[in-house]
Amino acid sequence: MNETLTPLTAEGLSIVPAVHDTKLRLTMSGAVEMRDPGEMLNPFWTKMDEEARSRNVQSVEVDLRDLNFMNSSGILTLVRWITKLKASAAYRLVLRYDRNVTWQRSSIPTLAKLAPNVVVPLEING
Amino acid sequence: MALGRNACGRCEFDGSEEELKQRRGDFLSDYVEMRFGPRWTYISCVRKFVASFFMIGLADKERAEQISMAASELLENAVKYASEEEGYLKISIQKQQNEVDVCVKNKAESQHINTLRREFALIHAGQPETVYLKKMEEAAMTEGQSRLGLIRILFEAGARLRLDVNEGEVSIHAIFPLETA
User: Fold this and answer.
1) d(Cα B161, Cα B103) in Å, to the nearest integer?
2) Do strands B87-94 and B99-107 pair parallel, antiparallel, or not at all (unpaired)?
3) Which terminal Cβ of chain B has fewer Cβ within 10 Å, N or C?
4) Which domains does chain B have, with CATH numbers?
5) Per the CB < 8 Å rule, is A69 touching B47?
6) Residues of B in contact with A106 (CB under 8 A)
7) What value does the mean pLDDT take over residues B29-34?
8) ipTM of this predicted complex?
9) Domain parsing of chain A, residue ranges
10) Alpha carbons within 13 A on the beta-carbon side of A80
11) Cα–Cα distance, B60 to A43 (Å, whole number)
């Protein structure tokens, strides 16, 4: 069963969530370079975390491949999500990234080291 | 190069193909300099310009993207903490050291300068990855700014960082070694 949830679109960023059977997939595109991305992203990640828990999905996959940049404040929003998940693990968080995008190749594996038991960096070539 | 209604700008570069080829092996210093008012919306524009510029000048996509990330993070700090309506990005390539020096200068209040000095001491007090992960964990537990920009430049981009303060003017340098052909 596939179901599309309400997407987030603002300030050059788009995140489209969709449920595919036992997986919640979030497809990101554009860039996270606003002054305070936490204002927008923290509540959105919290909502996705709640969706994942209420639906008992096995994994949440964040597809970052079309995200051309994320500033350090944006990185922090993912850190907050990972920290919450680490404290109360309910699903695996898969971060799918493109090894040809420099910021993704350097930031995502580092993020995964925060909680290696629940965060899986998934490197794709292209 | 004008970057906006309230900005003034300057870009110095002879972009001929022959000149580009020469500069790959024989870099001239201070060949890019931009100045603009501390407006957030300019940062993205500068980041994209720097990435494009160095992709051509260095023929190294990864290095170009690391340099543009550093420029963006330094500019974000400058816009957030500038005490006056003044802030500018300066990028120079030094032939002697075979390196790229991304420098952002701005005026800052003394308390921000002291915070910056402490931040520099902190990020240089251990292995960059260890410090980065520790700062991430600490930032997740507190409200406010991430303060991850400098350590991100140090660890993810592999740059050296230098802080200069002169009469309330802060200069932060992110220095990238270049591979010799």
Assistant:
1) 10
2) antiparallel
3) C
4) 17-177 (3.30.565.10)
5) yes
6) 156-157
7) 67
8) 0.94
9) 2-124
10) 24
11) 38
Q: How far is A107 from chain B (nearest CA, A)?
A: 7
pLDDT tens for the 126 residues of chain A, in order? 677 789 999 999 999 999 998 999 999 999 999 999 999 999 999 999 999 999 999 999 999 999 999 999 999 999 999 999 999 999 999 999 999 999 999 999 999 999 999 999 999 997
Q: Determine whether the interchain pair A83/B152 forms a contact, defined as Cβ–Cβ distance below 8 Å.
A: no
Q: How do residues A93-114 score in pLDDT, each as one tens digit?
A: 999 999 999 999 999 999 999 9
Question: Hey, are the CB atoms on A33 and B72 less than 8 Å from each other?
Answer: yes
**Under an 8 A CB cutoff, do A31 and B156 touch?**
no
The residue in chain A having the minimum alpha-carbon distance to the alpha carbon of residue B72 is A71
Q: Is A107 within 8 Å of chain B by CB?
A: yes
Q: Is A39 on the interface with B (CB under 8 A)?
A: no
Q: Which residues of B touch A12 (CB under 8 A)?
A: 44
Q: Is B101 in the A-facing interface, judged by CB distances under 8 Å?
A: no
Buried b (16+ CB within 10 A) or exposed e, A56-88: ebeebbbbbbebbbbbbbbbbbbbbbbbebbee
| Residue at token pair 């404040």 | A73
DSSP 3-state of A69: strand
More confident residue, B70 or B3: B70
The answer to whether the Cβ–Cβ distance between A102 and B66 falls below 8 Å is: yes
- Residue B72, exposed/middle/buried by CB under 10 A (0-12, 13-18, 19+)? buried
Q: Which helix (H) or strand (E) holds A120?
A: strand A119-124
Instruction: Considering only the beta carbons, identify the residue of B65, B72, B132 that sits closest to A71.
Output: B72
pLDDT for B83: 62
- Predicted structure pTM score: 0.87
Task: Determine whether B94 is exposed, middle or buried from the number of CB atoms within 10 Å of its CB (0-12, 13-18, 19+).
Answer: middle
Determine the topology of domain A2-124 in CATH.
Transcription Regulator spoIIAA (3.30.750)
